[in-house]
């Protein structure tokens, strides 16, 4: 393939930065991945990605697209110790029961975030023309005289703050995460910064790891206990490398899962399904607890800007950071990277920023609607709840009970929340019929209590029906 340019720079070598380097390496002679952290050779945690201490899994639509971007990556992950976990090994407690995933064949990763990132980083480093420049922080953009084009970036050494260097490039991609300086940089260059939308949810996470007894829960390797709408508490467990479980307990709306072993076990025991308690009780802890807070969703509407300098793109959490409960962030970043490759192939670097943002908008919107729509089920979450949201919620309150008994319905639901399909798939006539018939039957199988419709069901309702644009549930700060 002829090169579209000499040099592309990616700022931030987190998951979004790494996957964006892939389409760029195939289309530019050189790609430099810059990160202010010193990137570990091994699979260690690092300062710039504190969320790496908590559960990180690639949902089916992320794993399959990552394999398309980097063929053989699933084998690389498993060779490094990651599990690839098939859906019959999941126990998803949602909507007051357990989804029937018999015979379904979805796959997710079972690994720590440092392992996933480390394996992907090794593959990206090995691509022709890719250089990783770590220990350097992006300070400001450089432009042409008319400020219509980004020409590079000025960096500062983290070790020697007096030391600076400037890199020139045909394209700069900002994937520096939620705290991205792009809104400020754009304003300083005389561009309107993107509006920011927020939805305050005040979610807290506490994570511990345990030795894993493979016999527990009939060998299940992924357990989800959804937060019921009349409660605040939930959790997830995932089998990871080195024979361990990673267990993340979730507290909504200010609820804080405790970090001490006894408090952690009590919290797990109080959930509406016993599965997490069965994993935690009596299991040998491994390492210390980690805590994280997610105060609010944040979406920067770069996709609505009229002007963005040429040679510039923003992606990943720098555009939108989602409530981690839904495991969407890495997958959305992968989709954005795929769309970047397509946009470059369609029309080269001309207006590449705005074109890529427009092309990837569907993924950000689906994930945003899914997650914010779910959280709006809590009366304390402040945002509009239009009639369409209530109607679809009512439908989904029937869908989940059907999915407790009918693997076809469960599979359709997983395809949507796993980002393999758009939310409209849940409204197809054949599925409507199964939902209406299935939700009426009373088998009771897998029903463990709780509310008749889980949060993700409501979120999927929102995924179809949440209004877009200005009517979205978000608030400007
Ligand atoms: C608790 C928690 C759990 C999560 N679980 C999941 C999950 O299960 N599945 C999932 O898909 N997503 C999950 N996410 C979201 C996921 O972590 C992110 O969406 C994903 O990592 C993409 O982030 P990013 O690469 O855009 O930003 P980040 O991961 O924040 O990476 C940004 C990078 O930029 C670097 N950087 C920052 N500033 C500068 C600068 N000025 N110069 C140079 N470098 C800079 C940082 O060092 C870092 O390496 C979770 C998030 C949280 C908080």
UniProtKB/TrEMBL annotation:
UniProt xrefs under Gene3D superfamilies: FAD/NAD(P)-binding domain (3.50.50.60)
Tree of life domain: Bacteria
Coiled coil (residue ranges): none
Compositional bias per record (Gly residues), positions renumbered to this chain: 443-452
SUPFAM superfamilies: FAD/NAD(P)-binding domain
Biased composition (Basic and acidic residues): 467-477
Region Disordered: start-end pairs: 443-477
Protein name in the entry: 2-polyprenyl-6-methoxyphenol hydroxylase
Organism: Blastococcus carthaginiensis
């Amino acid at each position: 393939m002829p090169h579209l340019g000499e040099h592309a720079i990616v700022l931030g070598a987190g998951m979004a930065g790494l996957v964006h380097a892939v389409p760029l390496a195939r289309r530019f002679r050189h790609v430099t991945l810059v990160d202010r952290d010193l990137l570990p050779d091994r699979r260690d945690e690092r300062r710039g990605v504190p969320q790496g201490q908590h559960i990180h899994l690639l949902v089916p639509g992320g794993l399959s697209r990552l394999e398309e971007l980097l063929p053989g990556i699933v084998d690389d992950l498993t060779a490094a110790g990651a599990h690839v976990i098939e859906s019959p090994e999941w126990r998803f407690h949602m909507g007051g029961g357990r989804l029937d995933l018999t015979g379904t064949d979805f796959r997710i990763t079972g690994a720590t975030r440092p392992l996933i990132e480390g394996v992907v980083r090794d593959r990206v480093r090995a691509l022709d023309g890719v250089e990783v420049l770590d220990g350097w922080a992006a300070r400001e953009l450089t432009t042409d005289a008319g400020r219509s084009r980004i020409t590079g970036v000025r960096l500062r050494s983290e070790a020697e703050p007096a030391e600076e260097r400037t890199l020139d490039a045909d394209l700069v991609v900002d994937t520096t995460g939620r705290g991205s300086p792009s809104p400020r940089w754009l304003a300083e260059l005389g561009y309107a910064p993107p509006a920011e939308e927020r939805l305050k949810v005040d979610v807290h996470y506490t994570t511990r790891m345990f030795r894993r007894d493979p016999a527990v829960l009939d060998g299940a390797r992924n357990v989800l206990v959804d937060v019921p709408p009349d409660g605040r508490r939930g959790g997830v467990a995932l089998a990871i490398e080195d024979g361990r479980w990673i267990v993340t307990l979730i507290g909504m709306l200010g609820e804080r899962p405790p970090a001490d072993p006894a408090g952690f076990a009590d919290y797990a025991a109080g959930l509406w399904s016993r599965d997490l308690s069965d994993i935690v009780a009596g299991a040998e802890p491994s390492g210390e607890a980690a805590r994280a807070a997610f105060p609010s969703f944040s979406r920067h509407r770069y996709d609505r800007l009229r002007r963005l300098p040429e040679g510039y793109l923003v992606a990943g959490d720098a555009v939108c950071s989602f409530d981690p409960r839904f495991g969407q962030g890495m997958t959305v970043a992968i989709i954005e990277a795929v769309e970047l490759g397509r946009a470059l192939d369609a029309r080269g670097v001309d207006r590449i920023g705005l074109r890529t943002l427009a092309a990837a908008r569907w993924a950000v919107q689906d994930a945003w609607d899914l997650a914010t729509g779910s959280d709006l089920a809590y009366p304390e979450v402040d945002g509009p709840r239009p009639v369409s949201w209530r109607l679809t919620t009512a439908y989904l309150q029937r869908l989940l009970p059907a999915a407790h008994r009918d693997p076809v319905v469960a599979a359709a639901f997983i395809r949507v929340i796993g980002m393999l399909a758009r939310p409209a798939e849940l409204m197809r006539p054949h599925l409507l019929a199964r939902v209406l018939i299935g939700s009426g039957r009373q088998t009771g199988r897998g029903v463990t209590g709780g509310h008749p419709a889980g949060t993700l069901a409501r979120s999927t309702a929102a995924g179809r029906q949440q209004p877009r644009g200005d009517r979205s549930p978000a608030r400007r700060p």
